[in-house]
Amino acid sequence: MRLTLSLALCCGVLASQATFAADLKNGKALHDGSCFKCHDTSVYQRGKDGRVQSLSALDKQVRRCEQTLGLTWFDDQVEDVTHYLNATFYKFE
Fold first, then answer.
1. Which of 60, 25, 28 shows the shortest CA–CA distance to 41?
2. Do 61 and 51 contact (CB within 8 A), yes or no?
3. Is residue 52 classed as helix, strand or coil in its secondary structure?
4. CA-CA distance, 39 to 48, in Å (whole number)?
5. Core-most of 12, 24, 90, 93, by most CB within 10 Å?
6. Which pLDDT score, from 0 to 100, does residue 2 have?
7. Is the pLDDT of residue 4 over 70?
8. Helix, strand, coil % over all residues of the chain, rounded to 5
9. Any long-range contacts for 13-18 (C-beta under 8 Å, 24+ apart)?
10. In this structure, are residues 27 and 84 in contact, taking their beta carbons and an 8 Å threshold?
């Protein structure tokens, strides 16, 4: 009984993680349609010379930009853009 319950819970957790995985294609589309209004990709710098030095800082910056532009994205859209930028430019773990 415990094993069955544990397996069911484990499978449910894995399924829910897959459901919430970032959509990089959507992130790129949102980015390209909104972010280029203010800047090109040259602003995406990592390290001591860049503003963004971690994945959480990248998320905060995307949220700041989204609010500044008045985009009213949903949280999953912000996450899509954040993960698109990370996969394409920053490569944070």
1. 28
2. yes
3. strand
4. 20
5. 90
6. 56
7. no
8. 70, 0, 25
9. none
10. yes
